[in-house]
Write a structure and sequence with these properties.
5 strands; alpha/beta; RloB; RloB domain-containing protein; five-stranded mixed beta sheet
């Protein structure tokens, strides 16, 4: 999405200037894994050079529809180039109002990262491919088995070297669901976190 900020008028003499970084605001449903991971992305030189990322945590008891409403309001700021919302589907009990949240986002140009069943699937894809249906508990358990963490906080820097592996695995899942004509929210497992990565790191697969 092109910047909505007004370009500065040219100077009389040519001076070397850095390209203007785009500003991306990312609203997260989760309070631990998602912000921890995105903060690690934010620290990467390849991303930091081109993109200013602001992370907003969901209000207490935040659900996807409320998250999108917050993003719609923030998107009115002329200094913001893109707004994204990162949230889960959850299985076996899906989040309420997923369809209205998606429609509202589409209406206002809010980009979405939806992980089905949850964000931990994206973490798993750094280590291995997954094709079988997973509940939220299954994904959380497997994610912890793979990285050995015990608490809620994520040592996200450990994941950065394999982010492109995860992106390819996520894209493969998306292609598989498209071939099988599996409609949302039955496209479990799936995550389009690789689309956010591509938006802030153009060289990402």
């Amino acid at each position: 999405m092109p910047s909505r900020r007004t370009a500065a008028k040219g100077l009389k003499r040519t001076t070397a200037t850095r390209p203007e970084r785009k500003t991306v605001v990312i609203f997260c449903e989760g309070k631990a894994s998602e912000p921890d991971y995105i903060s690690a992305l934010k620290r990467l030189p390849a991303i930091r050079a081109n993109t200013a990322i602001n992370i907003e945590i969901a209000p207490e008891w935040g659900v996807p529809l409320e998250l999108v409403k917050c993003a719609v309001e923030r998107s009115q700021d002329d200094e913001v180039d893109e707004c994204w919302c990162v949230f889960d589907v959850e299985w076996p009990q899906n989040h309420p109002n997923l369809a209205p949240a998606i429609r509202l986002a589409e209406k206002h140009g809010i980009r979405l990262v939806i992980s089905n069943p949850c964000f931990e699937l994206w973490l798993i894809l750094h280590h291995e491919r997954r094709h079988a249906f997973m509940s939220t508990k299954d994904a959380e358990r497997r994610s912890r088995e793979l990285d050995g963490r015990e608490g809620k906080r994520l040592d996200a820097d450990r994941y950065m070297d394999r982010r492109h592996v995860a992106a390819r695995n996520a894209a493969d899942l998306a292609a598989r669901h498209q071939r099988d004509e599996t409609a949302f929210p039955h496209d479990n497992p799936s995550t389009n976190m690789h689309e956010l990565l591509k938006a802030i790191e153009p060289n990402s697969p």
